[in-house]
Specification:
The structure is a single chain. By secondary structure, this protein is an all-alpha fold. It contains 4 helices and no strands. It has one domain. Helices cover 51% and strands 0% of the residues.
Length: 79
């Protein structure tokens, strides 16, 4: 998954999940189970090309785009 594909996924998921906007990086990070302190930090690194999106992360994002919901629901990512 490229940085652009991840950015586009945030936009699509934000709309799909009823946010009416792109997901914030921290929301995307929480949806993907990334670090408790700053879950958006790794998303930022992915999107800036400073880190490669791991295959499991890419699969998870693609599953979300196919309609699978986060395990803790949407309330788990809104903070």
């Amino acid at each position: 998954m490229t940085p652009t594909e991840l950015q586009n996924a945030r936009k699509v998921l934000g709309e799909m999940w009823g946010f009416g906007r792109a997901l914030h990086r921290s929301e995307m990070g929480r949806a993907c189970g990334l670090g408790p302190r700053d879950p958006g930090q790794m998303i930022r690194k992915y999107e800036e090309g400073k880190a490669s999106v791991s295959p499991p992360m890419a699969i998870l994002v693609r599953l979300y785009l196919k309609g699978i919901m986060p395990p803790d629901g949407l309330e788990g990512i809104r903070r």
